[in-house]
Design brief:
By secondary structure, this protein is mainly α. It has a domain at 39-278. Helix content is 63%, strand content 1%. The protein contains 13 helices and two strands; from the N terminus they run H-H-H-H-H-H-H-H-H-H-H-E-E-H-H. It has helices at 8-25, 51-67, 74-96, 115-132, 135-155, 173-182, 196-217, 223-241, 254-277, 284-290, 293-309, 317-326, 333-357; strands at 311-312, 315-316. It has a two-stranded antiparallel sheet with strand order 1-2. Strand 1 and strand 2 (315-316) form a beta hairpin. Helix 7 (196-217) runs parallel beside helix 9 (254-277) and helix 8 (223-241) packs antiparallel against helix 9 (254-277). The two termini are 26 Å apart.
Length: 364
């Protein structure tokens, strides 16, 4: 593949993933949400659980193309480090930001882990591994992470001889480590879905993306067939693994890595056939959003926080908009909540279109 050729399906999948992130993060009311737009309570899998691993999978593909012609030099490491710190910094900013003056920060209430923080850490480690390892070593690292994580969480006793479990309680390694590292700076007292150990396992998701990119960049003629076979294999292996290590997004279990990567590979294969093989015009708006993915995601979190905090009348901007425009006695509450979320999505799709037309591409 020449450098001038761009895999359109990757940009489209990135845009679809960001739009899905915004959709599930911005309901009109968290009390009225359709089940597929919520995370599984603990074990299990919903469409919403696939959104974040899809993005990390795409990060892996992007790393392959961004650094395949780079060397492991000081300047390359500097760029990787700066980008990683930017992502982590943006994530922490969203946690501490308040739209009011003076800016009083309650340090006890700050959550240190987060989505952008995880993206930053996973990007850094995966990029460094990619620069220094061939595909066989990367495959070995991925397998080692999946097996090692399972052995740690399922078979290694906690301090004082406490037997580990995969349940949402204090007797699992993820929560034990997070409590030691973050204390009260977690999403919930008993776990954090972007905690330390689960971030390590999520590196495997990104590495699978790197390996899939190698297939896309190879000289194989029927790449889509290879992707379909690989996606099916990952799904089968993941569901089989779930017998011993349940599918769990919060723990980012090894079976979850395999299953989510399997679905991501299959979806990518479908889009690849439509766009890159058949050359059909599809997904223009998704591509436009995908070209400014992190910027649009960050703005969606920033604006949402303002809407939830800034008062308007006797409520907030968010509540006023939702109650005034979307809530009616004759409309099911979940539908009202969904329509609000779809309006938010439409706004950011429009923003993505505007930035694309103006050739504004903000790299983080």
């Amino acid at each position: 593949m020449t450098k001038s050729v761009r895999i359109q399906s990757v940009d489209i999948l990135r845009g679809i993933t960001i739009i899905a992130m915004i959709l599930v993060n911005n309901p009109g009311s968290w009390s009225h949400v359709y089940a597929p737009l919520l995370h599984a309570e603990w074990h299990g899998l919903t469409p919403t659980d696939l959104v974040f691993p899809f993005f990390l999978f795409i990060v892996g593909i992007s790393i392959f193309y961004a650094y395949k012609s780079k060397t492991a030099s000081k300047s390359t490491y500097k760029k990787i480090t700066i980008r990683s710190l930017k992502l982590i910094g943006l994530g922490l900013f969203l946690k501490v930001f308040t739209p009011f003056f003076p800016f009083v920060i309650s340090w006890e209430a700050i959550r240190f882990p987060g989505v952008l923080q995880r993206i930053g850490v996973v990007f850094f480690i995966t990029a460094v591994l990619y620069l220094n390892c061939n595909w066989k070593v990367l495959l070995g690292v991925t397998i080692s992470i999946l097996i090692g994580y399972w052995l740690l969480l399922g078979f290694t006793p906690l301090p004082n001889g406490i037997e580990p479990t995969f349940e949402r309680a204090a007797n699992n390694w993820c929560n034990y480590v997070d409590l030691k590292l973050f204390g009260t700076h977690m999403w919930k007292p008993d776990y954090d879905p972007e905690g330390f150990l689960s971030t390590i396992s999520s590196i495997a998701t990104c590495l699978i993306g790197v390996l899939v990119a190698k297939i896309l960049d190879s000289g194989i003629l029927q790449k889509h067939i290879v992707l379909f076979v690989l996606g099916g294999f990952l799904l089968a292996l993941g569901y089989l693994f779930s017998i011993w290590f349940p599918i769990n997004k919060a723990l980012w279990s090894s079976s979850f890595v395999l299953v989510s990567a399997g679905y991501a590979t299959l979806v990518l294969a479908v889009i690849y056939v439509i766009v890159d093989v058949k050359q059909w015009h599809f997904g223009g708006v998704f591509k436009q959003v995908g070209m400014n993915a992190i910027t649009i995601y960050f703005l969606s979190g920033f604006i949402a926080k303002c809407f939830y905090k800034i008062p308007l009348g006797n409520s907030t901007i968010h509540s006023w908009l939702y109650q005034t425009i979307y809530v009616y006695d004759w409309m099911p509450p979940k539908l009202s909540s969904l329509l609000y979320a779809l309006t938010v999505v439409a706004f950011y799709v429009g923003l993505g279109h505007f930035l694309y037309r103006k050739k504004i591409f903000i790299k983080v």
